[in-house]
Each structure stands twice: as structure tokens, then as C-alpha cells.
């Protein structure tokens, strides 16, 4: 890999790719979660200042390729990356992990945003949120008849009607089954992230007959090359240009 690559990450797939990059490449993290200490590539933490700031960074750092391995719901980051690459005339590649597909026994309630989530969980008492940090901004709005369990990457102070669990996948079916039972979960709230690392919650919800409130994926920009798995990306990045 001779051309200098900027890898936009924060997901498990991005970390797997970053572990194959040499010291001339840059792995960019938004700043949430833990910064890995076992990488040979440079690690940059923090934003770029929108598409214009990223375009300046690409020119100043002599980046020859941007690879977007951010979360499927990081729509703004992906949009900024696509715009910056167009402005800087740098190739834009992306990992586009396939979404999960509902199985015949699944009870998925599709919603498009936080308002839809709140409406969908109104009949339930013990929701499990697996949306990342977003529910933390709404802890003061927990209805008195509900108790939330929120799983995200970072520890957060507790709340009278919410339990916050800091944990990072992969999660097993046995672990999810134990959590659902111990916390009396009656509905799961999820993003359709795809991949195997966090899919066990859907299998356990299916097994226990629990509904899943599923947030729809946002539209993402197209890329010159798109990949469905980290391994496909690693193979392609071995000879990127």
C-alpha cells in the first residue's frame, strides 16, 4: 500500500481494516469510544470541520484515497466525505455492510427517527435500546410507566428510570438471553446495522417472541467502489491505486 489512505472509522469493521494499514496511513475516529493502542498506522481523533475542512486535510496530508468505514447511520460524515473527495479529486471508497433482513417469525416495527421510536415503544414497559448514545439525551423524558435499559459504548451516570450498560460487541445469544431475562425486556430498539457482531439480539428477540423497533437506514452517498465486508476491503486496499 504505497498511496496514502485516510480510513474513516469507528466500527469494528474499520478497526479490522486499520490493523492492516502501515504507518503512512491515517485512521480517523470521531472521538467516541476507546482509541486502540495496537495500530501501526497514525490515529487521528476529532472532526475535520465539515466537508470543506476535510477537503483541506486531504490536500494538506497528501491523501490519495479515502475509505469510508463509518457506521451505516453516520450519514452526515459519509456525505461530507463524498463532497470533500469530489472537491479534492480524491477517490472515495466505502464499506456498505448489508442490512439485516426480517425472518418469518420476526415482529419488526419500522420507524424513521426518534419520534417514531417513542411512539412505537409507548405500549411497553421495559425497552432495551441498542441505538448508541442517542437515548442518553432523553433520560429526563422517560415516561413514569417505563424503565429503560440502554446499551452504548461509554459509561454514563445512572438514572432513576434507566440502566446504562457500557459494552462493546460481539454479543452472544447466551449473553443476550441472560440480559433480556434479567432486565425483563419486552421490546428491543435497534438500528439496522447489519453484520454478525450484534445480530444475536435479533435471534433472541425472535426466540422470545419480542417485537423489535427497527430504525430505517438513512440514504448514503454512492462511492467509486463499494464493499460488503471488511475482508473484501482489506483485499482491495492491498493495491488501492
Automatic annotation (TrEMBL):
Sorted UniProt keywords: Cobalamin biosynthesis, Oxidoreductase
Pathway(s) annotated for this protein in UniProt: Cofactor biosynthesis; adenosylcobalamin biosynthesis
Record bears the keyword Oxidoreductase: yes
Pfam family, one: CbiJ
Domain of life: Bacteria
Enzyme class: oxidoreductase
Documented EC number(s): 1.3.1.106, 1.3.1.54
GO BP annotations, alphabetical order: cobalamin biosynthetic process
GO function terms (MF aspect): precorrin-6A reductase activity
NCBIfam families: PRK08057.1-2, PRK08057.1-3
UniProt name for this protein: Precorrin-6A reductase
Organism: Paraburkholderia silvatlantica
Organism phylogeny: Bacteria, Pseudomonadati, Pseudomonadota, Betaproteobacteria, Burkholderiales
Amino acid at each position: 500500500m504505497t498511496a496514502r489512505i485516510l480510513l474513516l472509522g469507528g466500527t469494528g469493521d474499520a478497526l479490522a481494516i486499520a490493523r492492516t494499514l502501515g504507518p503512512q496511513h491515517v485512521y480517523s475516529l470521531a472521538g467516541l469510544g476507546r482509541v486502540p493502542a495496537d495500530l501501526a498506522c497514525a490515529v487521528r481523533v476529532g472532526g475535520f470541520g465539515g466537508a470543506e475542512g476535510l477537503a483541506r486535510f486531504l490536500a494538506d496530508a497528501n491523501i490519495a484515497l479515502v475509505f469510508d468505514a463509518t457506521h451505516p447511520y453516520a450519514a452526515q460524515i459519509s456525505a461530507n466525505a463524498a463532497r470533500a473527495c469530489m472537491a479534492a479529486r480524491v477517490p472515495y471508497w466505502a464499506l456498505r455492510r448489508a442490512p439485516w433482513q426480517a425472518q418469518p417469525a420476526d415482529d419488526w416495527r419500522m420507524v424513521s427517527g426518534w419520534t417514531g421510536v417513542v411512539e412505537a415503544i409507548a405500549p411497553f414497559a421495559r425497552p432495551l435500546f441498542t441505538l448508541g448514545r442517542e437515548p442518553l439525551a432523553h433520560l429526563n423524558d422517560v415516561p413514569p410507566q417505563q424503565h429503560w435499559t440502554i446499551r452504548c459504548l461509554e459509561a454514563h451516570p445512572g438514572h432513576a428510570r434507566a440502566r446504562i450498560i457500557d459494552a462493546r460487541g460481539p454479543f452472544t445469544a447466551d449473553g443476550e438471553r441472560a440480559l433480556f431475562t434479567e432486565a425483563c425486556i419486552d421490546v428491543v430498539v435497534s438500528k439496522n446495522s447489519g453484520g454478525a457482531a450484534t445480530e444475536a439480539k435479533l435471534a433472541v428477540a425472535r426466540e422470545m417472541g419480542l417485537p423489535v423497533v427497527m430504525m430505517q437506514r438513512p440514504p448514503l452517498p454512492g462511492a467509486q467502489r463499494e464493499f460488503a465486508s471488511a475482508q473484501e476491503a482489506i483485499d482491495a486496499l492491498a493495491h488501492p491505486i
